[in-house]
Design brief:
Strands 1, 2, 5, 6, 7, 8, 9, 10, 11, 12, 13 and 14 form a 12-stranded mixed beta sheet that branches. α2 packs across α4 and α2 crosses α11. By secondary structure, the chain is α+β, with helices and mostly antiparallel strands. The N and C termini lie far apart (82 Å). It contains 16 helices and 16 strands. It has 3 domains: 134 residues, no CATH class; 203 residues, Transposase Inhibitor Protein From Tn5, Chain A, domain 1 (Alpha-Beta Complex), CATH 3.90.350.10; 66 residues, Winged helix-like DNA-binding domain superfamily/Winged helix DNA-binding domain (Arc Repressor Mutant, subunit A, Orthogonal Bundle).
Length: 546
């Protein structure tokens, strides 16, 4: 038999349950008291549930999303022994959340958000710029309650009515080297990603290099991003044909958008899988790095792959931390409070992981496991360990992360697809990449010269193109008439209306149709007087005006 005594250090009296285990070192008592004072959320009278305890309780709810109020409270006081206060009821904890509000949690996140790693940490910087990335996530689900629907509404699916749950759109600016968050905003999904991304532009500065996908490639957004002083590397839609002003020796060329000079890089990328399969794709990139000598085109094309690190950040947020569950709050204020707490916990976990990786020189933060760090942090909360850093068994998160470092990432390729698509007509139907993950052993990047820019795909025969049939139908009836997908499907004897609805949504972006009302479409004015149908399949752009 062995007996041992463990010493823990916690706050005194009724403040004792206010902790987050070892993560309290990143969210100390003084910081929480300060944000409560600045947001005027300090309790008027000191009773059994002070406001500081309430902040840590809301943060603990984000660590244990599958546990109810009393269960989370039990985990906060499990390691306190005789110091644990009287257990409150659920209503008292619910009232505590309402009394605090969302402002202290938002202020707390804004305090801890920002770059995490040192500039010399592997994988954090490209030359002298810290690489960051924009991206959005619209798969967060909120409870189907009247007060939530009044704020978020519901996504409407053509022919199938509204979604089962209201959805939130989360937009984050992420440090790709550590997947830490520099900032985040969220709101209803009826506003696009660029609307939310503009609110994060003030966080960019001249020490950063922004990586972004085609959703952020609009001219105005590119100009506004470049005005922040940050460098950028953004993928363009392959349909665009920028004007060639100056051809550079490495195959890239300079162009201008609103009197600002940018550099265009066209590359063909071919991956050779272990089984001999060759997968090819074409990328068009736009960048503010104009010197081909210091920033060769092929090097920038390889760097763009770092943009996908923001997807790993959303994976940790959505599936590891939240475990894919519906958010628990049933009103707008509670949802805001819950989301800010959720983002704060993610950020301090990333800081703890980065500190652990940097304690072992040469270790890439990519190798730190978010799942291991989360489990270790949850155990520290239950045991009330490492709250002030003075405990003998402190540093449990770092030890767990370093003991379970992931192997170096192997190069893999797979198709991008929606797991539960609303329509079988989608991007995966013509996807050339394998549906399951495959390792590849070779990546060939060919930079296309300015005189070798890719041409539009050859148009399909007009008599077999669905868009041509729809064009003839709309012109023959009345070019100014409104049509529903059901009416068009009945007239053309199309069985799969969901497939047609998805195509019509793409035709709006191609300026073939316009949406005249809810579920109603009309021929775009530029085709009203066109004597011939627009040639080309849904992938062809030969007939679309520049």
């Amino acid at each position: 038999m062995t007996s041992f005594v463990r010493t823990i250090t916690v706050a005194r009296g009724v403040f004792a349950p206010g902790h987050l285990g070892e993560l309290t070192q990143y969210l100390p008592f003084e910081l929480v008291d300060d944000v409560l004072a600045r947001s005027r959320a300090v309790q008027g009278r000191l009773r059994l549930l002070p406001s500081r305890v309430g902040v840590y309780f809301v943060l603990a709810l984000a660590v244990f999303p599958a546990v109810g109020y009393l269960g989370v409270w039990g985990k906060l006081v499990a390691g306190l022994g005789p110091l644990a206060p009287v257990r409150p009821c659920e209503k008292a904890l619910r009232d505590l959340r309402r009394r605090i509000g969302a402002a202290p949690l938002k202020m707390l996140f804004e305090t801890v958000a920002g770059p995490i790693a040192q500039p010399r940490t592997p994988g954090v910087c490209y030359r002298k710029w810290r690489t960051v990335a924009f991206d959005g996530c619209s798969s967060l689900r909120a409870p189907d309650q009247p007060r939530v629907r009044a704020w978020l509404g519901k996504i409407l699916n053509a022919g199938y009515g509204p979604e089962g749950y209201p959805h939130l759109r989360l937009m984050a600016l992420c440090e790709t080297g550590t997947r830490g968050l520099l900032g985040a905003v969220f709101g209803p999904t009826n506003k696009g990603e660029t609307h939310y991304a503009r609110r994060l532009l003030p966080l960019l500065n001249d020490t950063m290099l922004l990586l972004a996908d085609r959703a952020f490639a609009g001219n105005d957004f590119l100009i506004d991003t470049a005005d922040t002083g940050a460098q950028l590397l953004v993928r363009l839609n392959s349909r665009r044909r920028p004007t060639v002003f100056t051809a550079l020796p490495d195959g890239s060329f300079l162009t201008q958008l609103q009197d600002r000079t940018f550099r265009i890089i066209n590359v063909d990328i071919t991956a050779t899988c272990d089984d001999g399969t060759r997968i090819s794709d074409h990328y068009m990139l736009i960048t503010t790095l104009l010197d081909h000598r210091t920033d060769p085109a092929e090097r920038l094309a390889r760097l763009y792959h770092e943009r996908w690190e923001v997807e790993s950040a959303f994976l940790a947020l959505r599936h590891t931390l939240l475990t894919g569950r519906v958010l628990r709050s049933c009103d707008a204020c509670g949802l805001e409070q819950e989301l800010w707490a959720w983002l704060t916990v993610h950020q301090v976990l990333r800081r703890a992981m980065c500190d652990a990786a940097e304690s072992r020189p040469g270790t890439d933060p990519d190798r730190a496991s978010f799942t291991i760090a989360l489990q270790a942090a949850a155990d520290q909360i239950v045991d009330a360990c490492g709250i002030t850093g003075d405990d003998s068994d402190g540093g449990g998160i770092a030890r767990a992360v370093l003991a379970g470092l992931l192997p170096a990432r192997r190069p893999r390729i797979s198709a991008r697809k929606v797991k539960c698509p609303m329509s079988r007509y989608g991007t995966t139907q013509n996807e050339t990449r394998p549906l399951s993950s495959h390792s590849f052993n070779r990546l060939d990047i060919t930079v296309l010269a300015a005189t070798e820019q890719p041409t539009a795909l050859p148009p399909s025969p007009a008599n077999t193109d669905r868009r041509s049939h729809v064009f003839r139908l709309l012109v023959a009836a009345d070019p100014g008439q409104d049509w529903t997908p059901r009416q068009i499907a009945d007239a053309l004897k199309i069985d799969h209306i969901r497939s047609l609805s998805a195509q019509m949504g793409q035709w709006i972006t191609q300026k073939f149709l316009i949406r005249s009302g809810h579920g109603r479409y009309r021929l775009h004015p530029q085709w009203v007087k066109t004597p011939q149908p627009p040639a080309g399949s849904r992938d062809s752009t030969a007939a679309i005006p520049a």
